[in-house]
Amino acid sequence: MSESSDLREFIREQSLIANRRMDQYAKELSEWRDKMDRHFDRQDRKLDDLLAESRAQRAALFKMMDRLDSGGAAPAG
């Protein structure tokens, strides 16, 4: 083999190695992205639950305040 064909073979092998590494990196990145998507979906659901609970508590508080304003509760004493 000539020096030129040796160099060509070396470059081809290095390219194959680089392509395999990039394919593996792309696979790992995709898996990581899927994992992060699942994590943030769980966090979004938790936040939605907390917001719903907060709204319900606030609505209940406003109802109690409305009853107090309209004389619903007798003053202590």
Your description of this structure?
The chain is built from 1 helix and no strands. The chain has one helix at residues 3-69. By secondary structure, it is mostly helical. The protein is rod-shaped and about 105 Å long.
Q: Quick recap of the structure?
A:
Helix content is about 85%, strand content about 0%. The protein has one helix at about 5-70.
Q: Tags for this entry?
A:
about 0% strand; 1 helix; about 80 residues; mainly alpha; rod-shaped; about 85% helix
Summarize the helix and strand pattern as letters: H
Largest sheet features: none
The amount of helix comes to over 70%
Q: What is the strand tally?
A: 0
Uncertain runs: none
Give the amount of beta strand, in percent: under 5%
Mean pLDDT metric: 92
Helix segment tally: 1
**Could you say which structural class the secondary elements and strand pairing correspond to?**
mainly alpha
How would the global form be characterised? Answer: rod-shaped
Radius of gyration: 33 Å
> How far do the termini sit from each other?
108 Å
Secondary structure: elements and pairs:
Elements lengths: L2 H67 L8
